Amino acid sequence: MSPHRRALEQGYRWLRFEDGLERQFQAFFTQGHLVRVRVAAWVSIVLFIMFVLIDLATLPAYVSIRTVSIRLALIIPSFIIVLLASYRAAWRPYLGSAVFTAALVTGLSTVAVIGSALDVGYQIPYEGILLVALFVYLIACLAWRRALLANMVTLCAFVIMEFALQTNPQARLYQIVFMCAANGVGAYGAYFLEHSIRTTFLVDTLLHELAALDGLTGLSNRRTLNIHLERVWRQAMRDRQAVAIAMIDIDYFKRYNDRYGHARGDAALKAVADVIAGQARRPLDLTARYGGEEFAVIWHNPVPGELQAMGEVLTAAVEALHIEHLDSDLGRLSVSVGVAIGLPCAGDDAAALLRAADEALYQAKHQGRNQVVVTEPVSALV
Ligand SMILES: Nc1nc2c(ncn2[C@@H]2O[C@H](COP(=O)(O)OP(=O)(O)OP(=O)(O)O)[C@@H](O)[C@H]2O)c(=O)[nH]1
């Protein structure tokens, strides 16, 4: 079972997948939120510049010198770092940490802004810190745990500051209660937001798998093979490199099904598919179930003289599975392989290569099965 399906079945109420899947999700999360993080950082910078101007216009100089310094020296630079991390590909792996740091710096600095004003006997509106908490939970595109951590640290600092500097007990009580309530609402909303992003990630990937892979063997399906072949063909044409296709068909598989039943037939197909899956080693290689008991391998830029040996590795590996097949000449399950190679030129199409591989497979069957036939490179292709 794929890890995505397992995660969907098991649930993820702690907002964590198993290690490999979690890494994939983090990459999806960072990539998917890149634009939103940038927008959030730009909006924050503009907002804090506005707060600086409001401070300068409305606060007495002995207060604004403190609040403006904190905003300019700490908060705005932390968002500039977020922006840089979002625009520079080399810094992108650190984007999540940059956003977390900015959230922490903004929260603590806002506490410092309120505290530094209180320290000189001046009450400035504390609602800004509520806005910061909700922003960190819902807009900053932080993972829920990080948002919660940044906000809890800020909340603690706020409570300490209130007890240390707030002289009005009623204001202190209201402010702490509102801060706790804002954190509760924000954390609750952010939890369900991340939960649904995780669900979208799993469902998207599963839909992609359903559309691209064969359900029984897990290899690519025929549609994916055709799309990939077109792509490799075009790439090979640009690079003046060859493309080869091996068509592989299980020998006497109808007799196998008739003797051992469909369930064992399926298990044998899966075992052969696993062997074939090991034949794609380069990034542009691909293995696919072409249909029924027929498979295909695309080899990008192979050495023509090695194709026979590459096919024989396959036939030998299937033989080595030692799957009993008493209705075949060999007594074991075997495959026949037809291989064709071509050097794509303008005007050729990849389908011609597929046809040539199919003809080679037919020949291998005709010559007695459990063998490899490599076609002479067709002159139009090579
Ligand atoms: N168990 C199982 N059998 C399948 C599946 N897909 C196709 N088959 C069977 O594969 C068999 C293919 O039979 P044929 O095309 O006559 O070929 P063959 O018996 O392998 O004979 P040769 O190819 O000439 O060696 C048929 O009996 C199909 O029912 C599948 O998903 N599972």
Automatic annotation (TrEMBL):
It is an enzyme of class 2 (transferase). Residues 241-377 form the GGDEF domain. Pfam families: GGDEF. InterPro entries: Diguanylate_Cyclase (IPR050469), GGDEF_dom (IPR000160), Nucleotide_cyclase (IPR029787), Rev_trsase/Diguanyl_cyclase (IPR043128). PROSITE patterns: GGDEF. It catalyses: 2 GTP = 3',3'-c-di-GMP + 2 diphosphate. The chain crosses the membrane at residues 39-62, 68-87, 94-118, 124-143, 148-167, 173-193. Gene3D superfamilies: 3.30.70.270. Keywords: Membrane, Transmembrane, Transmembrane helix. Its EC number is 2.7.7.65. PANTHER family: DIGUANYLATE CYCLASE DGCM-RELATED, REGULATORY COMPONENTS OF SENSORY TRANSDUCTION SYSTEM. This is diguanylate cyclase. It comes from Massilia antarctica.
